[in-house]
Amino acid sequence: MATALRCFRHLPSLLYRSSFATPRAPAACSALLLDGCRQPGHQVLLTRQLAAKKAKGKGQSQAKVNISAALVEDIINLEETSEDMQAVVEALKEDFSRNLSVRTSPGVLDHVTVVTKDGKFPLNQLGQISQKSPQLVIVNMTNFPESTAAAAKAIRESGMNLNPEVDGTLIRVPIPKVTREHRENLAKLAKQSTNKSKEALRKVRSKSVNQVKKFKSKVSEDTIWLLEKQIQQMADSATAEMDKLLAAKTKELLG
């Protein structure tokens, strides 16, 4: 009762202020309930965490979207999308480690892929690889002599600037001296590998976006927008990581 009386006591002043006050949106409107998701299995509460808007031009922030993967699992598996994108990044790391080194060692040739009539195989499964000197690596193809030519071709096309010489079932691989030109060629190969990885990443993103668009008739436009934004942010993060890898590898190769 006392609380009610206090409220009535302040009522006239509140009415006076309200007649001049500018309407304001509720402060706690960070969550959007998407009406288009109110179908069985698709009642989804998505939260948009929007960065403060700045003036157009330098320093403008972008909207950040954070969607719970569990809430949209009937539409798309965001965790799987993230794993697919990270797999592209990991493949680039492996390519840099195996194929782009200033100094060539026998281990670098281990995983060169050889295409044969029976399928694709790592070189170390077909031949015995050994280093005879700092400037020469030997690949003995005695166990699979029919794959000698294919192995030599794989080494030549590996992107390591190697020119193998076939002598019966032996493949001699001269190791080039570390010159400035060789370093620059390796840096160019690193750039090419990164561009190929980015193309693979774009394919993953496009595949995921197309999956989301299949639900246009079942969920709201806001839902589609949020998911596309989330997928793009994941792709942007993976791209930024690849750019850092390229910068570090280029610095290493050029010395």
TrEMBL record:
Domain of life of the source: Eukaryota
Presence of the UniProt keyword GTP-binding in the record: no
Compartments, record wording: Mitochondrion
Keyword Mitochondrion: yes
Ribosome recycling factor domain boundaries: 92-254
Pfam families from the UniProt entry: RRF
GO terms, biological process: translation
GO molecular function, one term: ribosomal large subunit binding
Keywords: Cytoplasm, Mitochondrion, Protein biosynthesis, Transit peptide
GO CC annotation terms, alphabetical: mitochondrion
Family designation: Belongs to the RRF family.
Protein name: Ribosome-recycling factor, mitochondrial
Organism per entry: Thinocorus orbignyianus
